[in-house]
Amino acid sequence: MFLYVANWKMNMPFDRVKSFCEDNYDGLKDLSKLPDKKIVLCPSFTELIPVLDIFGNCDVEIGAQNCSAYISGAYTGQVSVSSLAQIGCTYCIVGHSEVREYFLESNGQMAQKVLLALESKVIPILCVGEHKEDYGIDTAKEALFKQMEPVCVGLQDRKEASVCIAYEPIWSIGTGVTPEIEYVEKIFQFIFKTGKKICPNVEMALLYGGSVNENNVKKMKCIPNLEGFLIGGASLDFKKFEKIVQL
Ligand code: PGA
Hints:
By secondary structure, the chain is of the alpha/beta class. It has helices spanning 14-23, 25-33, 45-54, 81-87, 97-102, 107-119, 137-155, 181-198, 217-220, 238-246, and strands spanning 2-7, 37-42, 61-64, 91-94, 123-128, 161-167, 202-209, 226-231. The chain contains 10 helices and 8 strands. It binds 2-phosphoglycolic acid (PGA). The site of 2-phosphoglycolic acid (PGA) has 13 residues, from strand 8.
């Protein structure tokens, strides 16, 4: 199954998310019926229930953009992943670089979120990626290892688990610049190797994210072992998103 995860971030207010889903209901439903392709829409928390209601009877799946690193308790402003599971979310993005950067969340917190998501039967989409100054296979590997290690150690004792890892080079997000296929291939090999070494029972599906659009999707699909895309900007325009999924 190849995943197309639309990360709408905070780009559309409530009324626009609703009209986007209503206006493109048939189109999104048709995309979700394509063989071996899965559509996951990730609106903000406030839009999750309305979007779940709209797509309740079809194969379009809904994910959250973040969740709390805690189970429950006095954490004002936080949303628990068990609540996300109860309303019907099947995926949750964890550790997006914007969350790491603007809200200073740590790798330890990401590890906690991944574990809690799995306990609630929500598939975590863990985002990892290097800054521009770490561009280069060796420096990128170092940056990725720091992000992956606590999560993998947290999963060490699990008999089995499936997680999605979205490799998103930070310098590629929203810039229109994408890495070479060979570069991503090497990074993917490193991610697999790190996972196998630290948490061998965990199955990893690798996604790519960063400036995926209708013009470069064909090229980006050539990344070996790729199982999906995390799409920001281009997912806000249904025609572009449709083209990405169809190509
Ligand atoms: P982009 O965003 O497709 O606009 O680069 C990707 C992301 O931030 O997940």
